[in-house]
What does this fold into?
Amino acid sequence: MQEPIVSIFSGRATRYLADKIAEYYGSPLGTCNVTVFSDGEFQPSFEENLRGRDVFLIQSTFPPTENLMELLMMVDAAKRASARRIIAVIPYFGFARQDRKDRPRISIAAKLVANLLQVAGVTRVITMDIHADQIQGFFDIPVDNLYASKIFVPYINSLNLHDPIMASPDAGGTRRASSYAKMLGTVFCICHKQRSKPNEIEKMILIGDVKDRDVILIDDIIDTAGTITRAGQLLKDNGARSVRAFATHPIFSGSAMEKIDNSVFDEVVVTDTIPLGPNPSKKIHVLSTAELLAEVIKKVENYESLSEFFNKK
It folds into this structure.
């Protein structure tokens, strides 16, 4: 019997998701061990033959930075083991918010990460709702940036909301809110914010009418939850019947859980690109990306079109 040419492996940070992806794909995860030394260094090793295989490495690169380093070392090990193709499946692409030089003497970390992945030996990247679309141009290899709308839109439709309206928590998310509004056949509004410094909002105003409507706030990331909870309160203060938040990547740093617990949201819907910490808010509802990612892996392996995953309308 001919041995399959696909091998799927996971880093330690994303094993919870990789197990589900492998189950949907119909193949068990490959064996990859990580030896941790007494000084804190670690060394990934594949415990099976990779020669001539297409290797899919699943690892989100959320903090700590060891998650990124582990992925890079797995890529290097696969390249040295003569893998045919090395596809990095990065559900959450860390450092994506550092995509430009907006003040003197700072790093463009997203470009640096792109360089590191390519130098290590990655031949293709699969990710989800990357924070800035232009990051795809940082790579000289194919990048498949999937949209969580494939997961969120069916769930929103299942809610059977009476009079829904999409909302963006800031001006930067206008395009995303507009795309969701088109898919759902509704309109959108914008919560415009002004910051005095990072993670601190000075002022927020609403552009649009939400009175007696069911509002769906959509974003790619919830970090400290300051912006989205303040936007939720603004929408409620302007007469919204209900307010729900949808975000692909649940970073939830600092006091984010407490803010969500005390927020006006009926629920906060996220995906499993990042694992939730202990004692998550009861308002949080998690939808899995596993089936979507497994389907994309199959199509990439069979050289099939991925156009359906990029159609946001």
